[in-house]
Amino acid sequence: MDTVYDAKFLIVDDNAELLALLCEQLRGAGYGHIRTAQSCAAARACFAAEQPELMILDINLPDGDGFSLFRALRAKADVPALFLSARDADADRLFGLGLGADDYLTKPFLMQELLLRVQHILQRAYRAELSRTKPAPLQLGERCVDLNDAIVTLPEGKTLALTATELALLRKLAENRGHIVTYDALCAAVWGADYYGYEHSLGVHIRHLREKLEAEPGAPQFLRTVRGIGYKLTKGEEA
User: Fold this and answer.
1) CA–CA separation, 22 vs 226, rounded Å?
2) Fewer beta carbons under 10 A from the terminal one: N or C of the chain?
3) Which candidate, 60, 72, 164, places its Cα nearest to that of 118?
4) pTM summary value
């Protein structure tokens, strides 16, 4: 993966509503590759079909427990994991961490805390890989974008931070620089295949992105609209 937002997730929890909420929050934060399972058996099948780069595991499952599942999956590959549990016992937390899990979060929890812990685990676990695949800076006139650190540097030296969604959009546009990227392709890059319902917010994120990338956001030089089709990141010389 090129950034933490490219990471593949496997989320295992028997609570369908919580699974849906976790998927929504993670996709909204820019993570697009998410598989879910509601049992140990389904989790093993998902793991076999595509090895994840982060597991989020509930402790209490209908056909087993998260601790045993974690041991079985980690025997196949050294994948980072975050345990979720309704049990607040120190013994459970210490047992999970003792097995080699990267973190442990007790339900109920704040989604923002979960997102921060996920980001820290991914950055820590894949720091070497991310540094090897660090993308080259993106030059947009006098503004320079570091796609690895999600920072826009202005001509006077001031910096602006990109949100996870803005970064995912810009990466997709940069990968196809000079070519049109459709609305559907951009939505899928940010929110995954099940992006329905997010289309209406795409324009809002594009507007915020222009405010950071363009000297004149109302008359964009680089991030152009192709009416009825999508957007295109130009090299600046196009009329």
Assistant:
1) 33
2) C
3) 164
4) 0.58
Q: Give the three-state DSSP class for 101.
A: coil
- Looking at residue 11, the DSSP 8-state letter turns out to be E
Give the pLDDT score at 51.
95
For the chain, count helices (H), then strands (E). Answer: 9, 14
Separation between Cα atoms, residue 147 and residue 107, nearest integer Å: 34
How far is it, in rounded angstroms, from Cα 217 to Cα 59? 48
Convert the pLDDT of each residue in 212-228 to its tens digit: 999 999 999 999 999 98
DSSP per-residue string spanning 181-237: EEHHHHHHHHH-TT-TT-HHHHHHHHHHHHHHH-SSTTS-SSEEEETTTEEEE--S-
Per-position b or e across 13-38, b if 16+ CB within 10 A of its CB: bbeeeebeebbbebbbbbbbbbbbbb
CA 37 to chain centre: 19
The gap from C-alpha 147 to its chain's centroid, in whole angstroms, comes to: 14
Q: What are 155-210's pLDDT values in tens digits?
A: 999 999 998 889 889 988 998 888 999 988 888 888 776 666 666 788 899 999 99
Reported confidence tier of residue 239, pLDDT bands at 50, 70, 90: very low
CA-nearest of 29, 58, 23, 21 to 43 is 58
Q: For the residues 94-108, what does the mean pLDDT come to? A: 82
Residue type, 172: K
Q: Are 159 and 151 in contact (CB under 8 A)?
A: yes
User: What is d(CA 181, CA 146) in angstroms, rounded to the nearest whole number?
Assistant: 21
